[in-house]
Amino acid sequence: MNNFTWQITGRTLAGVSSDTALPDNWRDQLVGRLGYRPRRIGILAELALSGALNCLDSAHETRLPKGDVLRVCSLRGSISAISQVLEQNRDDLPMPFSFLQSQTGQILPALAAALNWQGDAGVVVARNAMNLARLAGQQAGRNGMLLGWVEEVDPCQSFWLRLIPCTAPVACFVLAVSFEEMVAPKTRFWRLAPQGMELA
Questions:
Q1: What is the pLDDT of residues 3-52, one digit of tens each?
Q2: Would you list the DSSP string of 56-77?
Q3: Distances from the Cα of 68 to the Cαs of 58, 71, 167, in angstroms?
Q4: How many whole angstroms separate alpha carbon 131 and alpha carbon 31?
Q5: HSE-up of 16 (CA within 13 Å, CB side)?
Q6: Radius of gyration of the chain from Cα atoms?
Q7: Separation of alpha carbons 39 and 42, rounded Å
Q8: Per-residue model confidence as pLDDT tens digits over 106-138
Q9: What is the full DSSP assignment across 151-175?
Q10: Cα(162)–Cα(168) distance, integer angstroms
């Protein structure tokens, strides 16, 4: 396996800790950023949009290059929309937009439209948030990445990292042992190694 290295150039850590909670008006901020109110996409997709756009802003980028990969991870998926569909299913068939909002794949068209981007994108529902990093690194190869971890349960979370390929710095890399370590503000580089993701 080739050792690929990326530099973290932008991050949005909303919901990682109590110090980084989403602001109460995050939806209003999203409307201001987009210039319109998102409709019919569900809260998980809105959270993803908010975090991804803020992450690109922090990386001083206006759009994602076409060769880069975009991955979104959620441990629970669209819980509120799924609950709504199940409730509607008790009486009759679920409403079409409720059903669509329960599908995590609806996040991708919303992100692609907001970023004016086409490319390699995917949603991963996984129990281990660290698995997304390794999977995305293997799939990105020598390209960059925009990675997000989004949850709609209290507290809401939408934390994102923008990683661009770089030459490995002269630094001491250590194997990542926790997700918190991978997204910590002090972490500046990721390197894909046979045993997992290494950090510096």
A1: 689 999 999 877 666 667 788 888 888 998 888 888 778 888 899 999 99
A2: HHHTT-SS--TTSEEEEEESS-
A3: 17, 10, 17
A4: 32
A5: 20
A6: 17
A7: 8
A8: 789 889 999 989 999 988 887 888 888 888 999
A9: E-SSSPEEEEEEEEE-PPPSS--EE
A10: 17
